[in-house]
From TrEMBL:
<protein>
    <submittedName>
        <fullName>Cupin domain-containing protein</fullName>
    </submittedName>
</protein>
<dbReference type="Pfam" id="PF07883">
    <property type="entry name" value="Cupin_2"/>
</dbReference>
<dbReference type="InterPro" id="IPR013096">
    <property type="entry name" value="Cupin_2"/>
</dbReference>
<feature type="domain" description="Cupin type-2">
    <location>
        <begin position="66"/>
        <end position="122"/>
    </location>
</feature>
<dbReference type="InterPro" id="IPR014710">
    <property type="entry name" value="RmlC-like_jellyroll"/>
</dbReference>
<dbReference type="InterPro" id="IPR053146">
    <property type="entry name" value="QDO-like"/>
</dbReference>
<dbReference type="InterPro" id="IPR011051">
    <property type="entry name" value="RmlC_Cupin_sf"/>
</dbReference>
């Protein structure tokens, strides 16, 4: 029988605990609304979690949108479908995911996602990189030269295949 994997090293070294929890209420408005009508809500950013993870609620607009297959070198990405149907690329094929379905993508794992019709999902990155700049820049629809776009994608650990 193998022993369970141990817990990571302690990061809190106090004695009695501390008051440090915070709440993001469900009725807070989304941080980003895209031209397509989709939204992105910052549930917990990498800055808020000391870089441990970033968690976002992604709600699609009516028309299907989403990125083509790509991978990340330094972050894993997780998808948990809350409502509707989301097409997820698992590195082999596009699969239809529904409420309660989960996809884990380790560093280097090929993936993509597409959705519409108001479908929503939780999108989590670990560790918590600065994804907010990525989402906000794309939402502004800024024109970029080929070189600027390549540098932007490299800065945000996004490699298209």
């Amino acid at each position: 029988m193998s022993l369970p994997r141990p817990y990571p090293p302690d990061t809190y070294h106090g004695e009695g605990g501390e008051v440090s929890a915070w709440v993001r209420r469900d009725d807070e408005p989304p941080e980003i609304t895209y031209r397509t009508g989709g939204t992105c809500e910052y549930i917990a950013t990498g800055d808020q979690t000391a870089g441990r993870f970033g968690l976002y609620r992604w709600t699609f607009g009516d028309v299907e949108t989403g990125p083509d297959p790509h991978f990340h070198r330094s972050i894993s990405e997780q998808f948990y479908v809350l409502s509707g149907e989301v097409r997820l690329y698992d590195g082999r094929a596009w699969v239809t995911a529904r409420s309660g379905d989960f996809l884990y993508v380790p560093e280097g794992g090929l993936h993509g996602f597409r959705g519409g019709g108001g479908a929503s999902m939780l999108l989590m990155f670990a560790p918590g990189g600065p994804r907010e700049d990525y989402f906000e820049t794309l939402a502004r629809g800024e024109a970029m030269s080929e070189e600027e776009r390549a540098e932007f994608m490299l800065r945000h650990d996004t490699f298209w295949v």
